[in-house]
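Table S2 (text version). Query chain:
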Amino acid sequence: MKKLFQRLFAPVAAVLAFGSATAASARTTVARPALWEVSDPDTTIYLFGTIHRLPEDVQWRTPKLDQAVASAQELVVETIVDEKNPASLMQAMVKLGFGQGLPPLADRVPAAQRPALAAAIAKSGFPPTALDRMKTWTAAIILLGNKFKELGLGGGVEGVLKGDFSARGKPIGELESNVEQLGFFDRLPETAQRALLEGAISQDKSIDTDFAGMLKAWSNGDVQGIARSFDRDLAGTPVLQQSLIGQRNANWSKWIERRLAQPGAVLVAVGAGHLAGKDSVLEMLKRDGYKVRRLQ
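Corresponding structure-token output:
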């Protein structure tokens, strides 16, 4: 659950993190992530699984992907997060992320983890009194930003793609507004929110190893490896599986089906975990009778 949270919240947490990523390695990693298409006679929808934050030394552009970018008339991402002007995101956070009569944040973690919480708060740069007024999931997002600084992660795939489409004068759409996306987390029970907070402040070094494994699977286009990783993270947490993965995948697959009724070409770029496994967007499309073809 803790590792899954870091993947799903990456775009939001990175915007709220202070400081910058560490310098890139001199060695370049060449990636060939998976790419699919679903089409009918007058519509093509490319489906590209992303990682929201990446080391700066990963080269993931390929001729197949560049061809899809060139032919697509529109880019659609999970939600639009503008790191240079995050006003929309901040408004969504203010709307959903604060509550009345909340216990101090320190009282929402076990006593043994309070030193780790205090250290995470100090790193974040946010006043402790401000965090006390936040709902538990909101504070978890804020403190998760520390993890991205520690991992030395730079921008993700979506930021590069958005830059490409903007430069070509092509529109960029979203499957969920900032409010809609954060709403999935806001509706989680408090017990799940507290588990996410514990994950955000965890000093477990296995997180580094897990991210490296996920990055390797993504770079190799190993969809089964990605699915196994998400299955492990979701084991024993049906509420999270349904709220954060199942329901959203169902919404997105229906969006794709509706979009096929309009002519043209679209590139849909969403987190790789949403395109892997038995309840993925791809499998939902197949169950509804659509043919999904892997391009890369």
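Notes on Table S2: Residues 2-294 form one domain. The radius of gyration is 19 Å.
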